[in-house]
Design brief:
2 domains, 255 residues, 7% strand, two-stranded antiparallel sheet, oxidoreductase, mainly alpha, metal-binding, iron, single chain, Cytochrome p450, binds protoporphyrin IX containing FE, Cyt_P450_CS, Cyt_P450_sf, globular
Length: 255
């Protein structure tokens, strides 16, 4: 999805995917030295391909986000090449994975809660609420993007020094009884307006509305196309600092 949005040519998708994966993985604290070297090896090729593409779109703009970023003007100013590169890195790191994870989480939780699944099948307008609840109840995002206090602060009795890196923990916020009474219950009718699924404040997720449309459409297709689908085992997760990544989900789709 991100590659199409940016207008990356299909023949280059595999190479850009390796580049995008490297950007994401190199961001993780605690990554091993071997992994750093393996991932960093994809960077020069990825950057060269990106620069090639930026030159092309500079000369002949298309109807894609890259062209728009290159040619956007505000008070006569345009973005520098480094600013566009850094926006691409931000989009490739934030947008490449979470949509797929949310589809998995929503589907698995509906399959685990047959009453909710029956309601959603009978009334597709409940799908957005069901997706929000699945994420709150069984979220895949562990942490928000880091924040750095501008001065020393004390929060809930903990002193945080100026410039220290701070992460919010979504799993904890999503099960906070003050925001979500009976937080341990999966309830597609609950009020999820306090959900932090897409962050909050000035840095709220840029892809929020696009992601919601994609995920909700996909869930509607899956529940209507496969009415007899059921879980035939437990999902398998990989270890990852930022995401609870579901890498496989055994299902029987039935007829
Ligand atoms: C289900 C899918 C997605 C989820 C759950 C999600 C969630 C998030 C979260 C939690 C943040 C951090 C907010 C914070 O730290 O306060 C974030 C930031 C961001 N997301 Fe998403 N995201 C999704 C998809 C996307 C997509 C598809 C795009 C782009 C097309 C995107 C672009 C961004 C960007 C650019 C930021 C950084 C915003 C900033 O720092 O100002 N995201 N997202």
């Amino acid at each position: 999805m991100t590659m199409n949005l940016l207008g990356m040519p299909r023949r280059r998708h595999t190479e850009f995917r390796l580049f995008g994966g490297a950007i994401v993985d190199l961001f993780y604290p605690g990554i091993s030295q071997v992994a750093v070297e393996e991932k960093a090896a994809h960077m020069p090729r990825g950057l060269a391909l990106l620069d090639e593409l930026l030159d092309e779109r500079q000369a002949a703009p298309g109807d894609d986000l890259l062209s728009r970023m290159l040619h956007a003007q505000h008070n006569g100013e345009t973005l520098t090449r480094d600013e566009v590169r850094s926006m691409v890195a931000l989009l490739m790191s934030t947008a490449s994975e979470p949509v797929g994870h949310l589809i998995n989480v929503a589907m698995v939780n509906l399959l685990r809660h047959p009453e909710a699944m029956a309601e959603v099948r009978a009334d597709a307008s409940l799908i957005p609420a069901a997706v929000d609840e699945a994420y709150r109840y069984d979220g895949f995002g562990k942490l928000n993007l880091p924040r750095f206090p501008l001065e020393d602060v004390e929060l809930s009795g903990v002193r945080i020094g100026k410039g220290q890196q701070v992460f919010g923990v979504f799993a904890s916020a999503s099960r906070d009884e003050r925001a979500f009474p009976d937080a341990a219950v999966f309830d597609i009718h609950r009020d999820n307006r306090k959900s932090l699924l897409f962050g909050d404040g000035p840095h709220v997720c840029l892809g929020r509305w696009l992601s919601k449309v994609v995920v909700e459409t996909m869930i509607e297709k899956l529940v209507t196309r496969f009415p007899a689908m059921r879980l035939s085992g437990e999902p398998v997760y990989t270890q990852n600092t930022f995401f609870r990544k579901m890498v496989s989900v055994p299902v029987e789709v039935g007829r």
